Amino acid sequence: MGEIIFVLGGARSGKSSFAESLAKESSDNVAYVATYVPYTTDEEMKERINHHQKSRPSFWKNYEEGYSIAPLLKNIDSEVIVIDCMTIYTSNLMLADKTEEDIKSNVGQMISSLKDVDYKAIIVANEVGLGVVPETPLGRKFRDIAGRVNQSIAKEADSVYFTAAGIPLKMK
Questions:
Q1: Would residue 51 show up in a list of annotated catalytic residues for this protein?
Q2: Exactly one of 3, 24, 52, 109 is catalytic; which is it?
Q3: pTM > 0.90
Q4: 101: left (phi over 0), alpha (psi -120 to 50) or beta
Q5: Total domains in the fold of the chain
Q6: Angstrom distance (rounded) from CA 145 to CA 59
Q7: Which residues is 30 bridged to in the sheet?
Q8: DSSP character for 92?
Q9: Residue 110 sits in which domain range?
Q10: Is the distance from CB of 26 to CB of 80 less than 8 angstroms?
Q11: Phi, psi (5° rounding) for residue 2?
Q12: What is the per-residue pLDDT across 4-57, written as a single tens digit (0 to 9) for each?
């Protein structure tokens, strides 16, 4: 049975760096699952992606999956995986016209798959409930769904961390 670690935080809180440090401490045999789907080709986003890629060791196995993580998980031969990030993943599914029930089912399948494998999984997500109420209905819907996705992952995780200003706090 796999161990699930969930790392939450706001934008630029240090959550990805912390997740990567947990992975590095655990093993050299790490797989990284990036969930970003490039809807845009602007230079600033390319630079962000490049920065994230350079921060990871070159010998890590890298995967990109923006819509269906569960089937991929059974084919990864690593001791640790990092899934970064569930907030982007939720956004991808919403933009693909998936309902909240579809999204919750998709994430539930991912969690079930993680419980069936032998490796440690470190899942990263943005905490979306600490800011202002979004101005648009779509923004509020996204915040609500992402918040409920986070709750479902936290409930099933073996441990949960919250990061702020680069400092992780163990919550569970």
A1: no
A2: 52
A3: yes
A4: alpha
A5: 1
A6: 35
A7: 80
A8: H
A9: 4-170
A10: yes
A11: -80, 150
A12: 999 999 988 999 999 999 999 998 899 999 998 776 667 887 787 777 777 788
The pLDDT value recorded for residue 156 is 97
Q: What is the spatial distance between Cα 140 and Cα 46, in angstroms, rounded to a whole number?
A: 27
> What is the DSSP annotation of 30-67?
EEEEE----S---HHHHHHHHHHHHHS-TTSEEEE-SS
* Other Cβ atoms within 10 Å of 120 Cβ, number: 21
Q: Please give the structure tokens belonging to residue 21.
A: 């440090």
Q: What is the DSSP letter of 133?
A: P
Residues 6+ apart with CB under 8 A from 13: 163, 164, 165, 166
CATH number at 60 reads 3.40.50.300
For residue range 125-150, list pLDDT tens digits in order: 999 988 888 899 999 999 999 999 99
Token reading at 35 = 């969930």
Pairing of strands 4-9, 120-126: parallel
* Residue 50 CA from chain centroid, whole number: 18
CA 78/CA 142 separation, integer angstroms? 32
